[in-house]
Every structure is written in structure tokens, then in C-alpha cells.
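User: Before I run my own analysis I want an independent prediction to cross-check against. Here's the chain; please return only the C-alpha cells and, at the end, one sentence I can use as a sanity check.
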Amino acid sequence: MKAAVIEALGRVPVYTDFPEPEAHDGAVIATVEASALTNLTRGLVAGTHYGSSGLSLPGVAGVDGVARLADGRRVYGTAVTPYGMMAERTLLAPGRIVELPDGIDPVLAAAAPNPGVSAWVSLQHAAQVRPEHHVLVLGATGVTGSLAVQLAKSEFGVERVVAVGRDADRLDWLRGLGADTIRLGHDDLAARVAAAHRDRPFDVVIDYLWGEPAEQVLAALGNQGLGAVAHATQFIQVGTMAGPTINLAGGILRSAAVTLRGVGLGSVPMDVLRQANQEFLPRLFAMLADGQLQLATQRQPLADVEKVWTQREPSGTRVVFTP
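Assistant: C-alpha cells:
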């Protein structure tokens, strides 16, 4: 069969032949319909993700996606290594299959789970967001950040969400959903966050950027003066699109009741991930099918994987490969 084959970490996958999957240990063979090019998949293949060492090489790229089972059911599932979802056929892990509702676009269904589950776990498990919370989403114009804003408003009923990002059009759209906005590279991020924090302290920051933007936000949360009243703020670190490290002065943490924690494959308990798959994913697919959530996608043929892999996708858009 044809597949996007990872021959070595740090190299772009090659569209070539790969052995057909054989069912074993409860895993089932399925015909792939769509698989998203996520930051997780990019990082694993590049060898820069902490999970890269667990890959079997040569192997097939694509952690998850949409496939059709032998009985005709269309499902979302996770592939069993060395097989991936960027192939004509794959091997799906038992117990990690979610049946899709009728009428949902398989490309949309493939694009949503990775950012959707990440956003849900950040809001539900890590931050335990409540309607009365004041929430800031740093990197809100990206795929996951925009879903976090939408879910915070629609699923968690958060009255006040501040969306921070670069894309002006995407910020206008988020403003239409009820979010306040700050534009990176245009507005004074530190000053705007500090002013908003003084007006109504932030309870939660969901960060998809890290790097300099995170430094500015953390500095704005602290340094509020000797008369500042302590207010607990949870800073949830999820992505590092603006850089892998930050410079953090100790005085910032002493001057603000900020708790730093991360959300990722190594920091979220398995029972939380199971809850996300069993309870949230069906809800996510239903919201997508009904148009309650918006997610921009760009369909690409799997045969073009080598060319598309190195291209920059439009802001807030998820590339999805179809065999």
C-alpha cells in the first residue's frame, strides 16, 4: 500500500510503499479516509517531541484520523505503531475508536480531535474553568487556541475571555463570538494584560505560544505594586510556537499568586484522556456536525505529502491528508 513513510527522524516522510497491516491483539484493519497534519505529528517526525523516542522506524506518519471499518462504520481512531494514519490502510488501537455521526465531513472530523481534546483537557482538567472566571488565551488565532476560545464560551459558559493573537481577521471573528481581543505585534501586550488584570484579575491563562509573549504576560500578572492583593492565576502551558524557553525573574512569581503547569501526553493522567475520548469526543463531533464549532481545514492529497509538509499553512487552518 502507499503511505507517508518515516525513514529517519528529522526527515520529511516519503510517499512510497509500506507493508499492509495485519490484525493482532484486538487491533483492527481499517481503510483510511483522512489524517490531519498536526503539530504533534510534525514534532514526532522531526525528532523534537518528547515522544519521538517511542516511534518504530521505518514507520508511517499520522497519529490519528478517520477511517472506515470492514463493517462500513466510519470512525475516528488512533493508529498502532509502526502504522500511522497517513496511509491507504492502517491498524487501529482497540478501545480508542469513536464512531462518527452521520453527515460529518471526514476531513473536519480528522482535523478536530487533536486540538479539541487539548483545549478541553486544558479547560476542564487543568484549569477547572467556571463561568465566573476571567480567561486569557495566548495564541488564540491558531487552530487549538481558537477552539479553546469557542469551547470556553459555548461549553463552559465563561463570560469574559480575552483572545491574544496575530491574525487580525481571526481576531475580528473571535470578537464576534464574544471575546475581547489583543493583537500581537500591534497592541502593547504587557500593558493591555496588566490593565485588564487590574480591572478584573485573570483566573486562567491558556498558553500556546511560550517565548516572549509568555514572558510579557507573566510580567504583567506580577509587578502590580506593593498594594496588590493576591489573586490565584493558573498559567496552563500547552504549546511553544513562539519559542521553547522563557526568561522568568523570580520576583514575578513572588509578586503574583501564579501557578505554572503544563498539559501534554506526559502530564495528563490516562483516566482524563479516557474521559476525553469517551465523553468529550462524541460531543465534539456532534457540535461540528451541527455547526456549533468552526474549524478551518485544507484538504491535500497524501501523494503530495513531501511538498505540503514543508509549506506554511494559512493562520488557523489545519491541513488534512486524504489517500
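Sanity check: The chain has a mean pLDDT of 93.
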